[in-house]
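Listing S7. Sequence submitted for prediction.
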Amino acid sequence: QAASRGEAPRLAPVPTSFRTWAARLHAEARTRTDGLDAWIDILDGPNPRIGHRPLDPRKDTVATVRTLRRTLPPDRTEPLLTGLPAAFHGRVNDVLLAGLALAVAHWRRKHGGRGASVLIDLEGHGRDEDLFPGTDLSRTVGWFTAMYPVRLDAGTAGWTDERAAAQAIKRVKEQLRAVPDPLTYGLLRHLNPDTAEELADLPAPQIVFNYLGRVAVAEDDWNLVTAGLAELGGHDPEMPVSHVLEINVTAYDRADGPHLEAVWTWPDEVLTGAEAEELAETWFDALGGLAAHGSGGYTPSDLLVDLNQDEIDRIQAAWEKR
């Protein structure tokens, strides 16, 4: 508006600068040690290798990264975003991550591995204004990210029947609810010298998953470029990659309905394209099975009374037979 009047734009002041935010995080890291044991419990466990070898920062760089894009059509996407999370009184991530945990465990067993536990890094927005009273980040420019590990075990029953699908989603939902405040992991891992080394010595997730949410795609001249983050450029080709697999997922609302798009990236000497594609297809198969068979139900975090999952399932089954 100012430019249209021939005036120099005068932007409102930034309430909280990025520098102020960073300084507060450093100070907060000294006091937020109450979640350390919980983060140790998450990391300190099995972490079977999913690639042909461990990552090598000298070889596995951005220049070696390969990309695979897969998209689900509206009829398969809609239940994953609405009906299925609602049936389990959960969120979209509960469903997507239950499918991913099932898929990785299945893919691992198929390739000679063992175990159902999967260690995954989750990426969030990181703009947690509630951490410091009076903070306002609405006009602060910067990359705010909270990355933290989760250990998910959706079981070994698979996704081809009602009981297996329901139990997988319920298990993962509760495992996600038990995770401490996500922002505290970064504080303890990177900003607190008394805890950083202890966490650094534990197994590191090989997979990072980021659900970026729903984006409306308008059919007009101005639109969002629907490219995966790995395809946008701006990275030094010699920068080491941090994970064997990076999965960025976005739901695009188009005229014919929502499309779930997943962009998979990996260093080509650690995984082959065929292996990454097989895992991507297995994940979509698992999501389809969960959508087809996931009938819904409650979990302990939904209730104010102290009941475990078996007790809840028995009560619910008895109620449905009435």
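Caption to Listing S7: primary sequence and predicted structure tokens for the chain studied. The chain has a mean pLDDT of 91. The radius of gyration is 21 Å.
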